[in-house]
Amino acid sequence: MKQIEDLSVQTWIRGRRDLDFSRGCYNPERDTTPQLDQFASNSVVFTDTATSHKSILYSLYPSVHKTSRDTVPEEHLVSPLQALQAAGFTTAGIVGGGQPRAEFGFAKGFDEYIAVA
């Protein structure tokens, strides 16, 4: 097996509701993004950040992780980030506040987790 000497994995997530509702997949009265709407019709489309972040960080569907806008259950699963930590990788997360806060369990698997305003 080839050893990985240097690896950087980055996930950028941008969620602004005011922009999202200008898109047809979030607002059927708008016909502003037909290609995105077609793609979204065969995809998982998130309407809140806690659910989307949990799905992205754990590679799970919302029906499996049960996270919602109102509930972020205690996580008992090993996240992909924890697996990277166990393999000796350093992990860091930088978030802009909102629902993906450390107190909701989103810091699990990060060596360093920074919330900026």
| Helicity level | 25-40%
Distance between the termini: 43 Å
The coarse overall form would be: globular
What count of helical segments does DSSP give?
5
Strand content: 5-15%
Oligomer state of the chains in this structure: single chain
Structural class: alpha+beta
What's the helix-strand series?
A: HHHHHEE
Largest sheet: 2 strands, parallel
Low-confidence stretches: none
Number of strands: 2
Report Rg: 16 Å
> How confident is the prediction overall: mean pLDDT?
76
Neighbour order of strands in the largest sheet: 1-2
Task: State the gist of this model.
With 117 residues, the protein is of the alpha+beta class.
Essential attributes:
alpha+beta; 5 helices; 2 strands
